[in-house]
Amino acid sequence: MDGNSSGWRRGPLVVCVLLLAACAGYSGSNLKPGVSTLAEVVASMGEPAMTWKDPDGSEQLAYPRGPAGTQTFMVHVAPDGKLQRIDKVLNAAHFARVQAGMSKDQVLRILGPSGSMWTQSYSRSNELAWSWLFCNDWNVQEFFDVMFDASTGIVRSTGQHPNLEGVSGTSPPCSQ
Question: How many angstroms separate the Cα of 108 from the Cα of each of 2, 4, 46, 66, 103?
C-alpha cells in the first residue's frame, strides 16, 4: 500500500512538470537570445509553419499556435544562427502595421498565417478575407480581419470583430 500511495502523491507532480515543459516549448520561453541556436529553437518549438530567409542570412520563423490558438510567435534568428528575439504578434501594435496596399506576403511576415477555417472568399465583391483569433486587452477573444482584393492579393481594409462562439453568443474568455 505504501508503494501505491507514494505513486499517487508523485502523479500530480509529474503532470505539473510535464505541463511546464510543454509551456516552455510553446512560446520558446526556455530559449535565450544571443545564446540559443536555430536548431535549439526547432527542438523546443517544433517545425515552423513558415520561414523566410533574408539577403543578409537572417531568418524569420512563424509559429501560429492553433488551429484555435490565440497566439502566434515570430522567431528572428541572426545570420550567425543565434536567436535574436521572439515576438508575440497577435496584438494591436502588429495589427496597426497592416495597411491598405500591402501584399499577402507582407501581411504574412507581420502576422504569420491565418487559420484555414478563418479564410473566406467572396466572389461577388472579389474579396478574400483572412482572420486571426487573438486575446484583446480585456482578455476575451476577438478576430482581426484583413480583406484582400482577390485578383491582386493587395490589402483593401482591416478590422476587428468579437468571437461570438462563447456561452449564449458572447466572446469566450482567453485561457492563456
Answer: 56, 52, 19, 16, 9
